[in-house]
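I hope you will forgive my troubling you with a question about protein structure. I am sending you one protein, given as its amino acid sequence and as whole-number tokens for its backbone shapes. Thank you for your consideration; the sequence and its tokens are set out here:
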Amino acid sequence: MNSKLFLLFFCASVISWKCAAFAPPTGGKKDTTPPELLSASPPNGTVRLLEQVVELTFSEYMDEKSFTTGIRIAPVLEVDPVVKFKGNRVRVFFPDGVKNDMTVVLTLSRAIKDEHGVELAKPIQLAYSTGNEIDTGIIKGRVYSSIPAAVYLFNDDESDTLLLSKPNYISETEDNGSFEFNYLSPGKYKILALERSAAGLQLDQKRLSYGVPFINGIKLDSIFTGIRIRLFKEKESLRLLRGEWKNWNWGQLYFNNNIVDSVTIDGLQIGDQDMKWFNHPDDENAIVVTATDTIHSEKEQISFNHISLNQTILAESSAVNVFIPTEVDTNYLTVVSPAAKKTITPDRLGPPIELVFSRPLTDSLLNNIHVELMIDDTNNAAFKQTIQSPMKISIIPQDGWKPKKSYQMKLFRHDSSNEKNTFKDSVSIINIETTRPQGYGGFTGSIAGYESAQLITEISSVEKAEWNFNSVVNSEGRFEFKHIPESSYIFHVFEDVDNDKTFSNGKAYPYQHSEWFYELPDTIEVRANWDIEFQSFNVEK
């Protein structure tokens, strides 16, 4: 190698080594440790506050943007505090509106994050006073919700629209739903909870999930605990959203809420032709409408006079325009569900296999669909076939499903003058595997600590939302759950004041408190073939 090439190679190696030596390390575990507040100056609890600025020192650099909505002053003032950053230190300047002899609470919400996007582990409150003492009132409680919640506290001026105004204090729930307001002055308060994503906004009852407690208000002397709130979403009045016409004699209407099959739809028409309807097989917010005669126009109007349930009007007269397809649907009939392979867990009621078709069928076609059910590819299994609607039939073995077996369901193409009224293939096959049978158990117990003749206990499965059961508490305070599917259940009891057998959530406006309720902190395990006797559940009022 000549000297020039050697020198060039040596220089390149040195440059490469130097670059590598000073490169920052890569990789490593993602930071998931919540940031900590190390100190506050002046410290929490300072009275006779003169300079209205607080310096906070954190364990690491913080995300400046998260302080925009994550830091609050209480009582809530018209102007937000000014926040300035210097390394891991944050200076908070109180806004105008802080008066003499006033307790001011600085809240750092869980929305505040470090530079890696990790939130505070829990809200932090710091109290200061421009007077000689700090208020010491406390309000504690818990919000029961599947989503994080914020809690609003209002000075109760007995206004009808109080909960729709701007709150005086804002707190947030911890991971277990608990919340706490500190440094409050004695007085009367009202409280509500809402989804945390809307914290700081005024309540919009129609848009946001929220909840009110089972008390009218809070009269605070020193400490008030035991507040329990459930979040819920108010159900909107039933409205027709849109419609579509699928083929020569049928279409679909879509609503904002579910349509139960027991409702009455008065005056349902397309143009001036009366129509029939049934529930959509796959969408609880939709119905399928059918006409007897072919619709020849390019566009038509579907209308109804009203929708009612047990003499109660759910929706007033509505209409929607639909475009009529110019070409007739020439697709073959298909099975929309189930899929070609299905696994089921046998139980005492089935469950049935529900065959959903791609379009409504006439009674003659439904009654002539040829189905065979085989077990282990060798033996025919007798079954019951039920027509649920013009688009759905259910199949269930007469002797129930045998556990841990293989079934095969065959649907045969039937003769028709119009071949598009039947299946494309001569045989359609659905393979069904069964698991071990569903296990059932039960438990009994009694309720103590709250006197009422209207108590109802209710359990809700953690695994399956549709498993909800209730039991009335008798005059001796006892309840009983029998033949319940094995699962983990959330247990709660409520006072059914309106005797409708369901929990009433209350309302923010016009204000109505919820029904009293208590929820067990731990889940209850229902095991197959076990009937458990629990000791008395002691609930506080």
Q: What stands out?
A: Residues 3-12, 14-24 have pLDDT under 50 and may be disordered. Residues 248 and 295 are 6 Å apart (CA to CA).
